[in-house]
Design a protein that fits this description.
Elements: H1 7-16, E1 21-25, E2 28-31, H2 32-48, E3 56-60, H3 65-76, E4 80-83, H4 90-100, E5 104-107, H5 109-115, E6 123-126, H6 135-140, E7 157-162, E8 172-176, H7 177-191, E9 198-201, H8 208-219, E10 223-226, H9 233-242, E11 247-250, H10 252-261, E12 274-277, H11 284-293, E13 298-304, E14 311-315
Parallel strand pairs: 1-10, 3-4, 3-5, 5-6, 9-10, 9-11, 11-12, 12-13
Antiparallel strand pairs: 1-2, 7-8, 13-14
Helix pairs in contact: 1-2, 2-3, 7-8
Length: 321
């Protein structure tokens, strides 16, 4: 049966590509089988802590293997994933908790130090970078590694994604499993993604565009490369080359930085085959510069919105000429 729920993307990839590396982050990597196994353990822990189908769970973590574990674990438990910026202030996080109506938060170690005791959450799970001797890993060892048997349908809400709040306070957009899965399949199709692809991810997973990079590549058993150091763009370029990234996704400012403040225009990246741009209109002059600097790499200009989960339309590379 074809996956029709988001977390089934991970489960099928773990079945079809058990020993394949699913995520690379710095010097750390994890296979699909390992990722599914630890996500199952966390899902069972959430269930043991009282999480029921439809419960809303906030995740405040920077992009990491652990944050991906948290995302799929929440979905596997039947919960609704609500990812918010890991640098949210206590005031901002209190708004998210109260507005979403949740009492459960999964936080990174740094987020927990800043927020614990400052927000109205009854249950806080501190998920670090999966160190073997950490308290959370010890707790997870007692949980089963099997896929939880929670009755979920594709019309159930999978995620609530908060908008940027540019016209007021952030508003939560509810997306069902079917919303995300149909959009994911569409993106996979027009980008021609396959199991040999590797996407360089510099966009945060709490951003709907960033999250789409994860789900599209897991749909085809491809790999995700995480780099949270875009403030140092040359390090990202080196990482793309070292890890043989085949794709890069960015917003207009990302490409402006690459073209004006990095070695990207002159660096040969033999594995890179495509780039995607969304998150606002990119100046035509910048688009032309990118195409001139990288004539052999396909550039997809895209438009979407959070409510569209996220893609609405795209311009094929051959239409840019």
């Amino acid at each position: 049966m074809e996956p029709y729920l988001i977390h089934q993307l991970l489960e099928r990839a773990a079945q079809d590509y058990p020993q394949k590396v699913s995520v690379l982050h710095g010097d750390k990597e994890i296979t699909y089988m390992e990722l599914n196994h630890i996500s199952n353990r966390l899902a069972h822990l959430l269930i043991n802590k009282g999480v029921k189908k439809g419960d809303r769970i906030i995740i405040a973590m920077e992009n990491s293997i652990a944050s991906i574990v948290a995302y799929y674990a929440v979905l596997k438990s039947g919960g609704i994933s609500i990812e918010v910026p890991d640098k949210s202030t206590p005031r901002e996080m209190t708004y998210f908790v109260e507005n979403a109506g949740t009492g459960v938060c999964i936080l990174s170690r740094m987020s927990s130090k800043r927020l614990k005791g400052e927000i109205p959450a009854q249950t806080i799970i501190e998920l670090d970078h999966m160190e073997k001797d950490s308290a959370i890993m010890t707790e997870l060892e007692d949980m089963p590694g099997t896929n939880p048997e929670i009755p979920i349908i594709d019309l159930d809400i999978a995620s609530i994604i908060y908008t940027s709040g540019s016209t007021g306070k952030p508003k939560g957009v509810m997306l069902t499993h079917r919303n995300v899965m149909s959009n994911t399949a569409s993106i996979v199709s027009y980008l021609g993604l396959g199991a040999n692809d590797r996407i360089m991810v510099v966009l945060p997973f709490y951003y709907v565009y960033g999250k789409s990079l994860l789900n599209t590549h897991f749909m085809v058993g491809a790999s995700v490369v995480i780099n949270n150091r875009f403030a140092f763009p040359n390090s990202v370029i080196e990482d793309m080359d070292d890890k043989r990234a085949t794709g890069f996704a960015g917003v207009p400012s990302s490409f402006a930085i690459l073209m004006n403040r990095s070695i990207f225009p002159k660096r040969d990246l033999p594995s890179l085959r495509y780039m995607t741009q969304a998150g606002g209109m990119m100046a035509p002059a910048l688009t032309r510069r990118i195409m001139e600097a990288k004539p052999g790499i396909s550039l997809f200009i895209m438009y979407g919105s959070t409510e569209a989960s996220p893609r609405l339309t795209y311009l094929p590379p051959d239409k840019l000429k």
